[in-house]
Structure formats: structure tokens, C-alpha cells
Write a structure and sequence with these properties.
- The protein is 0% helix and 60% strand.
- It is mainly beta.
- Strand 9 and strand 10 form a beta hairpin.
């Protein structure tokens, strides 16, 4: 099972970026997917969570109050991807962003997987 995150880059304050996380491999079911970020010297924090992935309409949560109204996470089943649309970016959004998934593999094992990080840098 692999998760691959991409779409980071350098953007000016007030700009937008869209991160993508593509998943592949022997996946039976995905229960939830999330976006985390980690700034230098800081903990890795949950930015957005997409739960209820087995339902028709997964529910997004944004536990980080600083991103509410600016970040939106969504799913694209046809492409086996989730997205994090980031608008009105600020310098304090600068971090390495990671995607993760809680899933069940085809051999029956439950696991949590992480993608490699993608750097987002917001200049002032």
C-alpha cells in the first residue's frame, strides 16, 4: 500500500495551492484519511480529516481552527485521490504536509499508512 502526496510549492501570502494524495496497492477499504502538517521544530498536527470514507458522502473535519474557511478536503473516488485545497495562504501555513489513511488491506490487516511529505512555503 502506498500513499503519495504532491502539489506543494512556493506561493505568496494570499495565494492558493491544491495538494493531492494518491493511494494505491492492496487496499480493501479506507475508513478515514487525513492531512497533517509539521513546521520546523514543531509537532505534526492534524489539519483536516475526511471520515466516513465508506459512505457516499464522507464528512470533513478541520480540528485546526486556523484553517477553517480557508482549507477544504475532498475525495475523488474515480482517481483514488484526496485533495486539500488551500486558499488565503499565510506564512504560518508553511510546513511539510503529509497525508495519512486508516485502512484495511486485502489480507485483512488494519493499518495506518503515511505518504511522504510535500513542502508548502508561503512567503510574506
Amino acid at each position: 500500500v502506498q500513499l503519495q502526496a504532491y502539489g506543494g510549492g512556493l506561493v505568496q501570502s494570499g495565494g492558493s495551492l491544491r495538494l493531492s494524495c494518491e493511494f494505491s496497492g492492496r487496499i480493501s477499504s479506507i475508513y478515514a484519511m487525513g492531512w497533517y502538517r509539521q513546521a520546523p521544530g514543531m509537532d505534526r498536527d492534524l489539519v483536516a480529516l475526511l471520515s466516513g470514507m465508506l459512505t457516499e458522502h464522507p464528512t470533513p473535519y478541520y480540528p485546526d481552527g486556523s484553517v477553517k474557511g480557508r482549507f477544504t478536503t475532498s475525495r475523488d473516488d474515480a482517481q483514488n485521490r484526496i485533495y486539500l485545497q488551500m486558499d488565503s495562504l499565510r506564512p504560518d501555513d508553511t510546513a511539510v504536509y503529509y497525508c495519512s489513511a486508516n485502512l484495511r488491506e486485502t489480507d485483512g490487516r488494519y493499518s495506518a499508512k503515511w505518504g511522504q511529505g510535500t513542502q508548502v512555503t508561503v512567503s510574506s
